[in-house]
Design goal:
This protein is α+β, with helices and mostly antiparallel strands. It has a domain of 124 residues. It is 47% helix and 12% strand. It is built from six helices and six strands. Strands 1-2 form a two-stranded antiparallel sheet. A two-stranded antiparallel ribbon has the order 3-4. A two-stranded antiparallel ribbon has the order 5-6. A hairpin with an 8-residue loop joins strand 5 and strand 6. Helix 1 crosses helix 5 and helix 3 runs antiparallel to helix 4. It is globular.
């Protein structure tokens, strides 16, 4: 876990959602129903009724989204990611609504965790449609995989932080070259 490069708009919610599992420190913010419920409440996605099955679904969705973000960072697409996302998909729904300016939006419906996942899936869908999705990446470092928003001009960001993960990679590469 390194720099927190904030993503634009509601894509920030998706970045924060994926970063609830700190791979490097082994800390999972969704350790149980109460923890998941608290996180959802803190992020405006109130879910009063959360059980262990909901936690498993949410974790499945989170890790499948991380797999898509690793793909955004040049790694091969996990062939199970789409199936995992579909399996964890909310049983709630998304409705198309039009605002006063006739701009369409996706509005999540359903209860509790279904509504929360619908809001996250809607944000992913909109960012894919807008073209901002490819910039949301997961760090290539196996020990990190922190989600970050690539703000580089040419979309070439690889590490969540050059000061931490990028530097570690450069040092390892240097040492490997020196050995040979």
């Amino acid at each position: 876990m390194a720099d927190d490069t904030t993503a634009p708009g509601e894509l920030e919610l998706v970045r924060q959602f994926v970063n609830t599992n700190d791979v490097e420190d082994g800390v999972d913010d969704f350790a149980g129903p109460e923890a998941l419920s608290a996180w959802l409440r803190d992020h405006g996605l109130a879910a009063d009724h959360v059980d262990a099955d909901d936690v498993q679904r949410v974790v499945t969705a989170r890790e499948a989204l991380r797999a898509l973000m690793l793909h955004n960072n040049g790694l091969p697409l996990d062939p199970d990611a789409a199936e995992a996302l579909n399996r964890a998909a909310p049983t709630g729904s998304l409705a198309v609504r039009f605002g006063p300016d006739c701009e369409p939006s996706l509005e999540p419906h359903g209860k509790d965790v279904d509504r929360a996942l619908a809001a996250i899936y809607a944000a992913v869908f909109r960012s894919m449609a807008e073209g901002t999705w490819p910039r949301l990446k997961a760090c290539r470092a196996d020990t990190c995989q922190w989600a970050f928003y690539d703000t580089s001009k040419n979309r070439s960001g690889t590490w969540c932080s050059m000061k931490v993960c990028g530097n570690r990679h450069k040092v390892r590469s240097y040492r490997a070259r020196k050995k040979s």
